[in-house]
Structure formats: C-alpha cells, structure tokens
Amino acid sequence: MEIIQVIDNDNGTLIADNGRVADTFWRRFRGLLGRSEYERGEALLIKPCSSVHTVGMKFAIDVLFVSAQNEIVHIIEAMPAYRFSPWIKNASYVVELPAGRVASCAVKIGHTLSLNKQKM
C-alpha cells in the first residue's frame, strides 16, 4: 500500500506523515474496520470517494472531503462511530484522520492539500 504525507498548503502544516491510500475496491471496503485506535500522524486517503460511514468502527474520526483540485470542500470533525456522512457533490477523495487532528492543525474549508509519496 502506498504511503503518503498530507500537507496543508495554506498554513504549511504536516497533517499526517503516515498516510495510506485506499484506491481499490477492497482497500476502500476495508477502510479502518478492525482497528481499535488511530495514532497521531496516521491518515487514510480514500479515492474515489464522496461519502463515508463509521459503521463497525470503535472510535471517532475527522474527515476531509477534497476536490479533484486538492481543495478541501467539506469537513466533519469527530465523526462518531456508527454514523453516515452526507454525500459531498464536489468531493473527489476523502482523508480520514484521528479525531481532533483538524482542530490541532487549523485546517479549514478552502485550504488546499499536497500529497507527497513516501519511500518505503
């Protein structure tokens, strides 16, 4: 699985340095299921994606909905387990983060992201 860094271009913040990309049916289907926690620095980039759910999860997550131009178009902070997000029309992909990460990084709607591949 591809590892990436997620960076907020507008404030220069490293949002995640251990991001994983879920870009196949099975990786998107599995998502974060089976995990008991989410560590600071982790992220899951799901593409293509314009809505998410937390059914079967054991913890809350922050969710960034991002356009094809890498602009954040919608944010859900601390989405609890067993919930469904709305469908976000302009979203091309989603970045799932540990709950509280959006606030601690001062991420806002309209900010753009950089996704940098990491060497393993």
Describe the secondary structure blueprint for this structure.
Blueprint: E1 3-8, E2 13-22, H1 25-30, E3 42-46, E4 61-66, E5 72-79, E6 93-98, H2 101-105, E7 113-117
Parallel strand pairs: 2-3
Antiparallel strand pairs: 1-2, 1-7, 3-6, 4-5, 4-6
Q: Could you give a quick summary of the protein structure above?
A:
The chain is mainly β and 120 residues long. The protein has helices at residues 25-30, 101-105; strands at 3-8, 13-22, 42-46, 61-66, 72-79, 93-98, 113-117.
List how many beta strands DSSP finds: 7
Provide the residue-averaged pLDDT.
88
The value of Rg in angstroms is 13 Å
Number of helices: 2
Output the structural class: mainly beta
- Beta-strand content bin: 35-45%
Shape: globular
**How can the largest sheet be summarized?**
7 strands, mixed
How do the strands line up in the largest sheet? 5-4-6-3-2-1-7
Order of helices and strands: EEHEEEEHE
Low-confidence stretches: none
Helix content: under 10%
Distance between the termini: 10 Å
Q: Your description of this structure?
A:
This protein has helices at 25-30, 101-105, and strands at 3-8, 13-22, 42-46, 61-66, 72-79, 93-98, 113-117. The protein has 120 residues and is mainly β. A 7-stranded mixed beta sheet has the order 5-4-6-3-2-1-7. β1 and β2 form a beta hairpin. The model has no long low-confidence stretch (mean pLDDT 88).
List keywords for this structure.
120 residues, 38% strand, 7-stranded mixed β-sheet, mainly beta, 7 strands, 2 helices
